[in-house]
Amino acid sequence: MELLNALVVFANFVLIPATAYGAQLALGALGVTLIYGILRFSNFAHGDTMAFGTMVTVLGTWGLQNLGIGLGPLPTALLALPLGIAVTAALLLGTDRVVYRFYRKQRVKPVILVIVSMGVMFILNGLVRFIIGPDDQRFADGERFIITAREFKTMTGLDEGLAIRTTQGLTVVTAVIVVALLFWFLNRTRTGKSMRAFSDNEDLALLSGINPDRVVAITWIIVAALATIAGVLYGLDKSFKPFTYFQLLLPIFAAAIVGGLGSPLGAIAGGFVVAYSEVTITYAWKKVLGYTLPEGLEPGGLVQLLSTDYKFAVSFVILVIVLLFRPTGLFRGKSV
Amino acid sequence: MTGRDALLFLAVAALIAGTGVMQSWNSALFILNYGLISAIMALGVNMQWGYAGLFNVGVMGFTALGGLGAILVAMPPVREAWAAGGLGVLGGLAIGLGVIAGAIWLWRKLPRGRLRGLALVGWLIAGFFVYRAVFDPAVDAIESVNPAATGYLGGMGLPVLLGWPVGALLAAGAAWIIGKTALGLRSDYLAIATLGIAEITIAILKNEDWLSRGVKNVIGVPRPVPYEVDLQQNPDFIALADRMGMEVVTASTIAVKLAYAGLFAVVLVLLIWLTQAALNSPWGRMMRAIRDNEIAAEAMGKDVKARHLQVFILGSAICGLAGAMMVTYDSQLVPSAYQPLRFTFLIWVMVIVGGSGNNFGAVLGGFLIWFLWVQVEPAGTAFMTFVTSGMAEGSALKEHLMDSVAHMRLLTMGVVLLVVLRFFPRGLIPER
């Protein structure tokens, strides 16, 4: 019984939140890694792209809520998601046309593209704050819980409750569907294969008649979809604040690099590695240890390895360790 | 410097002077002083990026460390706190360092294999708990000493000007640690690593209350220049203000700002002289050779890694110096004020717009971009007032537009950066 209680506490405070967070990071990291693979630069504007897509979705959600349209137990934001993806895709294609294409034609060094993406980051950041303001916005509606702590307790008769929020369940289900679709697209379709060919060897791909403009455009559209979905899921799970999305840049990049930049599988693995370690290290283990350790050995303090404010430090330390011992990441990404 | 460059500098000077005439000399001097600090930060980033091509996006962290240096030197020590837990904190930190050094030693000495990994992990975990056991009670003891006013160890109570080199040294030390681990990495990885270090530095400043009071902020840092209140009571000063036909209160604030401007200008001129000398020396040529072709430079026998580390430390130290100057000017350290867009990416805009690789370009960019950063807001307000003048009073859209003016500056900076990159890819004053 004691052990079961410990397990429930662990699942409630570590396993489930970290899985949801990991799925969100993985989707974000997939976007970063795709841009790196196809366009060959680290996109600093990715966090703000996520914020932009989420903002459009939030606005759409409010509109739908005003009209009284909803999805019942599911958040209305899911209905507004296609709108968010479409507008973000249009924005990204627009920035590519106006900004990035010029430099791509000149074949500048990747680091110049990174600086250019810094400029885009400023603009998107300003744009999002301009339209929706810098404050917290909550836009989750529908049923809050799949199972509440009290229901779980009466169901199982345990002392500890296990709560699963709708947004957490939704995050994992959506992430699985999106990732499955993405891998099917990359591995099974002609366009997806041409994208992988372009990523592996640009010259050979061009030689075999692949249209680079089309590959780039499709990449931006997929990235828009991934960024918007990741942003909306994160916003539903926590809340939407432009600055938080900018700060997500670090764990997302850590995830992409840990997995190996350019490797989609690595991005997913990296997302979960970063999320699990962040939550595990910043969680106070007092309760779990109290249940598992024998009588008299219970810890006096919180047994929290690091305060939650240091969660950036965790993603960073993992990043450094992986880079020192396996410079191309866990899944052998590319290194331009 | 050519005639064209001089004209550009004159134009920026005219912009700042224009602020003085149109708005007030106080705001003009505010722009000038922060412009001087920004120019120094830009010089630091220019050393790393312009000389050596190192992509450092952790400027914010080095700036904050410099600020911490000023605090640690200038604030009066809190004797009670030292008595309560000073020894424990120092001991804890020493144990922490010892654990890390021991881990490195173990890694080098033990034979390869699974045993080495296990021993290392065991050593680190045991070390971590010993460290926390010594460190935590000492921190609690310090933070409970008069938490409303102090609750930290305080500084050394020395003149704040000494804090400037100390801030630079702190930043240099951090740069050494980062450089040792991350400089061998590719440019994008170095960028992410420095971004992470900057966030961690700010997290430390926000959370380690025993060090710098965390989010309770350190205020009232002693000044290197006289206080306005003292000037206003000084009969000589009152007489002087009278003779210049100024109000005493205004005259005193302007005099203080001018004194700061003088101090900062001395530092900036000194740094320009030093960086110019460095750039035109064999060392500077070697740096640029390494930047332009690492492999060729290595073939010529240049130690690329060591030179990168060197210039990374030097540039970071300059950023730290600027950070210490800023804390001195503000008379306070507010960790939550450190935002990457303002303290890292804005400095990058300055360097790119001014002209990377050219020290005068970086300085010009520092002044110009800082001027824009400050002035875009009033300009935006004026613009929005004009746009919304036809709208009904109290309409939601009008209120929203007026509220959003504050975010125009980010937008403007992005546009400026992209336009300069597109049409003047080498900046306003290109490298020669």
UniProtKB/TrEMBL annotation, chain A:
Keywords: Amino-acid transport, Cell inner membrane, Cell membrane, Membrane, Transmembrane, Transmembrane helix, Transport. GO terms for cellular component: plasma membrane. GO terms for biological process: D-alanine transmembrane transport; L-alanine transport; L-isoleucine import across plasma membrane. GO terms for molecular function: L-isoleucine transmembrane transporter activity; L-leucine transmembrane transporter activity; L-phenylalanine transmembrane transporter activity; L-valine transmembrane transporter activity. It is found in: Cell membrane. It is a multi-pass membrane protein. Belongs to the binding-protein-dependent transport system permease family. LivHM subfamily. Its main location: membrane. The chain crosses the membrane at residues 6-39, 51-71, 77-99, 111-132, 162-186, 215-236, 305-325. This is Amino acid/amide ABC transporter membrane protein 1 (HAAT family).
UniProtKB/TrEMBL annotation, chain B:
It is found in: Cell membrane. The chain crosses the membrane at residues 30-47, 54-75, 81-106, 118-135, 155-177, 189-205, 258-279, 309-329, 341-360, 367-386, 406-424. It comes from Rhodovulum adriaticum. This is Amino acid/amide ABC transporter membrane protein 2 (HAAT family). CDD domains: TM_PBP1_LivM_like (cd06581). The keyword Transmembrane helix applies. Its main location: membrane. The lineage of its organism: Bacteria, Pseudomonadati, Pseudomonadota, Alphaproteobacteria, Rhodobacterales. Keywords: Cell membrane, Membrane, Transmembrane, Transmembrane helix. The keyword RNA-binding does not apply. GO terms for cellular component: plasma membrane. It is a multi-pass membrane protein. GO terms for molecular function: branched-chain amino acid transmembrane transporter activity.
